Amino acid sequence: MLNLHRPDADIFVPDALDAEAALARTTHLCIAAHQDDIEIMAYHGIAECFGVKDKWFTGVVVTNGAGSPRSGIYGNYTDAEMQKVRILEQRKAAYVGEYACQLQLGFTSAQVKDRAETAVVETLEAVLRATRPEVVYLHNLADKHDTHLGVSLNAIKALRAVRSETQPNKVYGCEVWRDLDWLMDADKQALAVSARSNIAAALVGVFDSQVTGGKRYDLATAGRRLAHATYFASHGTDEESALNFAMDLTPLVDDPALSVSDYVLGFIDHFRADVAKKLL
Ligand SMILES: [Zn+2]
What we know:
12 helices
């Protein structure tokens, strides 16, 4: 049986199938740091699977959501109470999005950022063995949030460790705390997210504790997708009304010897060369 390491890890299966079977049907997997990150960064995968019989999306939230800002009706909540609210909000999203399964692993941010900590990698290895996904969504490796970066680096370690047993066809590095408009178009993975804008809006909207207090993630997420679709190509009409951009992280899993920093800095080199070429 799947060992999620922490006793407070939360497993939620919206259609109440046995957890092991629910995970085994997964085709699309998102591994994210916090509650609500999945719905901001990986709607592409959620929409690909929504209502489709042989495609299933599973979400993994690695941290416990402690220490998040709180205001309004949540103003007096303790950390423990806030964590309960955030777990429930994530379950609501999983229900609305018809996920195969939602895992909330409950690690601290400190554990995720500690490069010597092995429990996070080992747990993600177990999740990958249980799900055997075809497509994986991670935070992009130029994200400015250290916990996002920590989760992705742990996930890449785990993907590399299990690659003889299971290996996805595609690994995307997605947008939350830093978008990817700066990538050269040839380096961009443009993910169409126009489908079911009603579901897309509901998925971010259920995270009331995050939106209350003025952080309009619901509007900002939709706005980013619209802006990307509009500004992606200067000619012609927009085929998509919403796009997310992603960094292709598949080569890092295909070739475990490839340096993560060399690979990511390569994208910046391409951008730099393009700007330089036009100014010289
Ligand atoms: Zn986050």
